[in-house]
Each structure stands twice: as C-alpha cells, then as structure tokens.
Amino acid sequence: xxxxxxxxxxxxxxxxxxxxxxxxxxxxxxxxxxxxxxxxxxxxxxxxxxxxxxxxxxxxxxxxxxxxxxxxxxxxxxxxxxxxxxxxxxxxxxxxxxxxxxxxxxxxxxxxxxxxxxxxxxxxxxxxxxxxxxxxxxxxxxxxxxxxxxxxxxxxxxxxxxxxxxxxxxxxxxxxxxxxxxxxxxxxxxxxxxxxxxxxxxxxxxxxxxxxxxxxxxxxxxxxxxxxxxxxxxxxxxxxxxxxxxxxxxxxxxxxxxxxxxxxxxxxxxxxxxxxxxxxxxxxxxxxxxxxxxxxxxxxxxxxxxxxxxxxxxxxxxxxxxxxxxxxxxxxxxxx
Length: 336
Fold this sequence. Notes:
Blueprint: H1 2-28, H2 37-66, H3 69-75, H4 78-106, H5 114-140, H6 143-149, H7 152-180, H8 196-216, E1 221-222, H9 223-230, H10 234-246, E2 250-253, E3 259-262, H11 272-279, H12 296-313, H13 318-322, H14 324-334
Antiparallel strand pairs: 1-3, 2-3
Helix pairs in contact: 1-2, 2-4, 4-5, 5-7, 8-10, 8-11, 9-10
C-alpha cells in the first residue's frame, strides 16, 4: 500500500513540476494555451524517462571509450593526451547545452526552431557551468557559515543554488524567444497594446490563409507560419486564433505547433461571424458584454453599427471572401 501511494505521489510530483515549468516557459513565449491532460501525461513522462536515459547513456558510452586501451595509450602521448582531455570537457559541455536546447524546444507549447533553442541552450549551459564553478568555490570557502547555521546551512545553500539554477533556465528560454522573435527586444510586456482594428484585420487575415490553404492543399498553417507570412504580432495571432477556435470557426489539429483548419463549411459560414468572434470574445477574468450597464443611446449606436455590417456582409460567406477575384472570373467564363 505504501509503495502504491508513494508511486502516486511521485507521479503527481513529476506532472505538477513539469506543468509549472511549461507554464513559465509559455509565459516567456506569449503562449496562453497549455497542453491537454493526455498530452501532458505523454510528453512529461517521455521527458522524465528518455532524457535521463539519453544523458546517462551518452556519458556511459563516453566513459567506456575513455577507459579503452586504445585511448589510454593515446593519452600517454603528450599532445594527444591534452586533446583527449579537452575533448572530454567539451563533450560534457555539449551534453549540458543539448539538454537545455531540448528543454527549450520541447517544453513550450509552441514550435521553437532549432537555432533559437540551440542559442538559448548555449547561453544557459555556459551560465550553468560558470555558476557551478562559482558556487563550488563559495562552498569550499564557507566553512564559517556551517559553524554559524549548523545543519541549516546545507538547506540555505541548497535553496540559493536552486534559485540560481531556475533563474538560468528562465534566462536561456528568454534568449531563445528573442532569438526567434527579435522584434520583441524593444517591447516591454506591460506596454503591449493593440488596436481593435488590428485585431479584426488579423482575424480576417488568419481566416483567409487557413481557408485558402485548406482548399488548395497549401500545407498546414500554424501560428508561426501566419506570423512570418503576414507580420502580424504573435500575441495578437494567439488571441485571435483562440477567439476563432472558441467561436467554432476553426479547429486546431496536431499537438505542439498546432495547425488550423476550418471547423465549419466555409461556403455556409458568413464572413461577419469572423468579426463577431473577435469583437465578442470576452477573454478570461473580464465581465461579459451583456453584463455592462449602458445607456439606451449607446445601445442604439451599436445596433446601427451591427446592422450596417450585416447589410454589407450578411450575404457574403467566408469562401466568397477568400476566393472573391477567382469566383468572379469563373462566373464570367461560364456566362452566368
């Protein structure tokens, strides 16, 4: 019974810890949506099982090679011995850098390209090694703290070390984010604000490319691909795609680096539904639109705006909007 309870506690601890790591990295990457529960269990357990096996296995193979008779003989030769020693150190550094790069490419719930994750892993690996060297020197010269704090000194030093290591992990993730999104370097998160017109236009742009790609088989359209093709800021796209998905206009497929496809037949869905999806999206933590107390003149103005949009776009479907020029050419050629 104790073994079963201990296993459940271990399972919960692993999932909870990695969930906090994912939330932190998602915050850095401006990704509000987490993995689903089945995806978390699968990906987290794969990380916990495979990562240590690969690291320990790689180090074991390296240790076996270094202890082989051939390498021992080569180590006795002056220049070759020095080169082998340096190669061993570089290999250990490469393992650390590779581990960080894997974390930065795998843990955020978005598609992280190889080079940005490698750059972040390189920065974090160098900081990790430097912090380890500095902390070791500090521990060696901190015997007086053990005398003062007794057994609590170990706990205090461990908490300091844990804080530094977590700070290094977050720093490397931030470097990966800015390496992939350099236009965010001069933008402070708390100062980011977007116009309503930008949000509505971004929604129409996203629907245009997703629906057109779906009809023409132009490959999957992900958030990153939309951002790269249209220059729409990623946070705007994330919010817009979330609103469109919540309204049932698009559907996400796949896991990490989700691609989007239409959730309704475009030839039967009015284009006004796209604008309504982003205009009426309440987000999280905000009161609903219907709960606002507004005077009658304001309600009249909004009704006139809505009626004008309905009169202009009411009969236009999403397919008509996406293929407007092509549709007119086909109708002329058919003589209708």
